[in-house]
Amino acid sequence: MAKTVLIVDDVPTVRNLAKFALTKAGFVILEAENGSVGLAVAKSKQIDLVISALNMPVMGGFDLAKAMKADPKTQNIPIFILTKDTNPDDAQIGKEIGIRAWIIKPFVPDKLLAAVKKALE
Questions:
Q1: What range does the domain containing 91 cover?
Q2: Which of 64, 73, 113, 116 has the largest count of CB atoms under 10 Å?
Q3: Contact between 38 and 58 (Cβ < 8 Å)
C-alpha cells in the first residue's frame, strides 16, 4: 500500500514541486495551505509523514508540530520542516519539538525523496 505524505505550505509552487517528486515515486500526496488545515487533515486521514513550511499564516510549522506531538493520534507521525531559515536556534527548537528533518529551500527534489524514503523505512 502506498504511503501518504501531507505537504503543508502556503506557497502552491513549493507544494507542487514536492508533490511532483513524491508522486513520481508512488507516494499519495495530501496538501494543506497552513498548519491549521494541516492539523485537521493529519487528525482525519491516515498520514505517514508530514512536510511542513516553518513560516506560514494562521499556524506555522512549529505550532503544527507541537499540536501533533501533543495528540496521541498524530504524535508518532514523522515531521519534516521545509524552510529558507538557516537559524541554528530554530533548528535546535525543531529538534526539541521532535522534528525529524530540516530541509532548506530551495530543495533538490531527489534529496527530499531520499529523506522521505529513509524516514519511512
A1: 4-119
A2: 64
A3: no
Q: What cell does 110 get?
A: 531527489
C-alpha cell at 44: 482525519
Q: What is the CATH number of the domain that holds 62?
A: 3.40.50.2300
- Could you check whether the bond before residue 72 is cis, i.e. omega within 30 degrees of 0? no
Torsion of CA 61, 20, 12, 77, to 10 degrees: -20
CB-CB neighbours of 27 under 10 Å? 21
Domains contained in the chain, number: 1
Is the pTM value of this prediction over 0.90?
A: yes
